[in-house]
Each structure stands twice: as C-alpha cells, then as structure tokens.
Amino acid sequence: MDRITLLIDMDCFYVQVEQKVRPETVGLPCAVIQYTSLAAASLIAVSYEAREKGVTRSMNGDAAKNQCPDLLLFQVPMRRGKADLTKYRDASAEVIKSISKFTSKIERASIDEAYIDATGINLFCVYSTSNVVIDPDSMKHLYDPGDLPNPPYSCSINEISGQMAAIECLCDGRKLRQALCLAQKIKDQILADTGFRCSIGMLSKIACSLNKPDKITIVPLESVQHLMNFTRVKKVPGLGGKLGKDLALRFNLEFIGSLTAVPLPRLIEEYGEKTGTWLYELCRGRDYQAVSTRTLVKSIACSKNFLGKSSLKKDAEILHWLTNLAGEIVERVAIDRANHNRLPTALSLFLRSDQSDTRSRALSPNILASILPRSQQMEEEETEAQIARRIAEMAYGSVRSLIGTAAITNISLSVGKFKSDHSAACGDVKKFLTEPPKLVKRESFFRQFFEIGNQAEPSTPKKVAFEGSLHQATEPKAQEETKASKELVYFQRHNSTAEKVLCEECGSYVLVHLMPEHRDFHFARRVQQEWNREVNRTLQPLQVKKETRTIRETKRGRGRGKRDLGLAKIDTFFLKRD
C-alpha cells in the first residue's frame, strides 16, 4: 500500500449549517427544502433523526410532513428568483481551512466532500469512533462477523481485542494506524473550528458511507476485495451515470466485484485501453490516481429548472432569467477574484428543452475580464449589473440557434478555466486617483553630491588639475573646506524649496527638471508675438487699399479673381523690413 487516501464527508451538511444558527433544533428530525411551496419543494438534505422516521431525499415537502408530522423544515434563502447557496459555500470554505491545518494535499470534491493524502503523517490514535471492514475469510482471527448483518462486514475497533496490535498486524497496519489517528484529529479540529460533524473513510467514498454519522471507517488491504464484492455498481465513484449503467447491462452486474471475472482484453475491446484498464483495476479496489491539490472550485455555475407549466416560451421570460443567472455569476466571480486573485477565461451556456437533451454553446469570455474584484463597500454593483445584462444579451443570441422554438426546461451558465489575476499586483486605479496627495521628502541631488564629498578621508589631499597646465597643485585642507562650503551655500540658496531656480525672463521660481520645458514656453511665446506683429503689419495696407476700391474694381476678371491675402504666408515672417 503506497498511499493512504481519506475522504472527509460532512454529515447532512446543509442541515448542520442551519442547525448552527438554530442550535435548539439539534437532535430533532430536520430537513432542508429549496422553495416555500411544499408540494413542489424537494428535500436536499435530511437529518439522521428524520431518516429514522422514514423521511428520504426523494420526497417533496408535503410527503415528508405526512411521513413525519413533527419534521422541521429549513428553507434555502432565495435571491434573484432562485436558491442562494452562499452561506453553505462559506461554511464549506471553513471546513477546508480546518483541514489545511494538517496537510496541504487536499482535493475538494464537492461542497461537502474532500479527499486528502494521509501518507506519512504520524499522530496518536483514538479508537472510540473508528470502524474496520472485516473480510470473514482472511480476518477471522481478529473478529467473527457471524453476528453482523448483511455484508460488507464492518465493526468498531473497540470490539477487537488488542486494538493496536490488531491493527498493526494487518498489511501496512502501521500506516493504517497513522491514517486513523489523522482522521480522528481532523474530525476533532473541524468540530472545534466550525461545529460541524463529519465521517471519514479509507478506500475513500465507498468505505465512508458504511458507518455514518460521525464515524471513521478503515479498509485493510485484506478486506478490499470483500468490500468490492458487495458494493453496487452505481455506488462506485465514476460509475453512477451512463458508463455504470452500460457496464451493468453489458456484463449483467449487480456488484462491482463481479467484474473481476471479465479479462482485461475484453474490457479494452469494449471501452478502449484507458477506460478498460481503469475498470480492470477499479473492480479490484485499486485506484492509482493521486490526490490533486485543489482547495478551490474549478468552475462557477448557476442554473434554474422550469418544469411542467413553468417552462419558458416567451423571449422576455428567457431574457429575464438569463439576466438573473448572469447576475449571480458576475457577483460570485467578483467575490472569487477578490478572495483568490484569479479570473475565469471560459464562459458557457447550457440549455435543455422539452424536445431535446442538454445542449451547450461556448460564449466569448472577453467580457469576464471587466468584472472587478468585489470590495466591502459594494461600490461595483451598478457595474456588475451592466456586465450581467451584456452576458445575458450575448447568451440570448444563442438560445434559438440551440433549441429553436421549443420550451426551455433548464438554463445554466458556467465559467471556468481560471487563471491568475496579474492585474491584482497593479493596484486599484480608483483608489490611486481618489487618495489625497502625500508629501514625500526629496533630498537634493546636489546636497547628496557635496555630502559625499565631505565624507571623504580628511587626510587625503585633493589634486586639482588646471586647464592648460601639465602641473598639478595640491590645495591645503582649509582651502578645500572653504571652497566646498561656498559651493554648498550656493546650491542651497538656489535649490532650496524642492530644487527651484529663478527664471530670468518671468522672475518666477521653477523646478530644476522643468526648466527646459519652461524655457521652451518662453521661446514659443516670443515666436507667437513676433508672428502676430508681422501679420498685423502685413494686413494694415491691405485693409486701407480695400476700402478705396471702386465698384468696378470689385468685379472679378474672367478666371482671375483676386486672392484673399487676409492670411499671410509663413515666409513673410522671415522677411526683414526696414
């Protein structure tokens, strides 16, 4: 066993989040629904107390109330006409933060599940809530499962005599014990930080569901095949959809362990080399895929179902719901960008109608770059609304080309392919422009120059080379200090108050580095004044002559009209006049 992987699965997560706000409901039968209408509302989470009274997630609100009259129903908050899962996502982030105190090798699987790599972590062990899967053929010396219910068999480690010795005598038992200790520590840390309880399993998702709630289940290498022999195909991660159905139909399977009878060449022939090899290893309880470090979601999506009479047919209704969904997407991207400095580079539209399966269209992602990070002052709401409308209009243009005139039963928008937001390092332009100016002390370059000269070794004589002479004279130290002090006073006098110098033309003080531009200004003004004088001198005799012209003189000759000399040529400026 090279790796030990744990799955942390939060128990009735949505219910726990609601009970944290209302602690008086802990221990009572509870469920979470999405909408106020009990007839149409579906249960998304059911507490274990409610499950004991026959309530299941497949029930709607009315059926659940009939089954358990004292059932407490929590409603998911509503926003933009659909369920708002923000507080559940925030609670999930708190759980990931608690797990991060133990290891950075965390792969977030869903809002209430995460895989971690527990290989090589040493901790002390606690067996009070720990269970082990027992293979009756190879582990009878530890425990006789004869009194246990239907397989797969698992029992509490407390029921095994010589607990620590029993664990360590298994294949890779020491690693299992260390992983078991880590699992217990993680459970305790999550409970202390968030108040939420969870179950943890090794052979991850399959083992985790065997003992819930608030339990740990380990699967020794000796019991792996026993567990697979009694695990239904649809319960195996990756086989809950079309592949699992096809596999069960093609080979007449009920449990995934029965697939071991199918040789590898046959699996490769039916499903290709990659999938066939994966199935061959999977039915034997082997999965070599490493835990990929991922604590953030890979995509952000929001969708809405419109079943039965609520299906969308009118263009105005479609555009309205596209705008609502786009508004949620933009808001979540803005918050995600502020918290994690990343930006999505892919935008997709998904539609399902009453006449076709789900169809998708990739939209231009360029608009996503204009979503600014969300600040605490909520100043960007108006901008976000404008971006949401643009996304909705862009998506609306693809609706009819995807499904024609059919009624829409589901709309979904999704963004993904996140990349680092390099603009975050550039700062906020708005903040830069609105901040009051700050006074910064700037030290004169000339002052620095003479201070460096004064810090030279005093005993070292200076050699001054005189122009036109091959001889070098050495001045006394006193003369050097006097000369340096005079020069320093000169520059202090002329460069005090931020290094300003006197302009001889206008008598104002100008910064040293702006003096060339200031001189250009004076030169340009002199040129303009000379130009105006020359133009006025040229126009005066023309105006006098124009006033003395007769009516006959005003008539133009054939094709020889007098040119208007109101605007003089530029060469007249350069002509010298006496």
Q: How many distinct helices?
A: 18
> What structural class do helix, strand and pairing data support?
alpha+beta
Distance between the termini: 108 Å
Strand order of the largest sheet: 7-8-1-11-12-9-10
Look at the structure and give the mean pLDDT: 75
Oligomer type = single chain
> What is the CATH homologous superfamily assignment of the largest domain?
Reverse transcriptase/Diguanylate cyclase domain
List the uncertain runs: 123-128, 456-478, 487-497, 550-557, 559-565
Residues in β-strands, percent:
15-25%
The tally of structural domains comes to: 3
Largest sheet: 7 strands, mixed
Catalytic activity: DNA(n) + a 2'-deoxyribonucleoside 5'-triphosphate = DNA(n+1) + diphosphate
EC number: 2.7.7.7
Pfam families: IMS, IMS_C, POLH-Rev1_HhH, zf_UBZ
Organism: Echinococcus granulosus (Hydatid tapeworm)
Written account of the structure:
The model is unreliable at 123-128, 456-478, 487-497, 550-557 and 559-565 (pLDDT under 50). This protein has 18 helices and 20 strands. Helices cover 40% and strands 17% of the residues. The strands form six sheets. A seven-stranded mixed β-sheet has the order 7-8-1-11-12-9-10. A four-stranded antiparallel β-sheet has the order 13-16-14-15, with helices on one face. The chain has a three-stranded mixed β-sheet with strand order 3-2-4. It has three domains: 5-230, 2-Layer Sandwich (Alpha-Beta Plaits), CATH 3.30.70.270; 299-427, DNA polymerase, Y-family, little finger domain (Dna Ligase, domain 1), CATH 3.30.1490; 500-552 and 563-578, no CATH class.
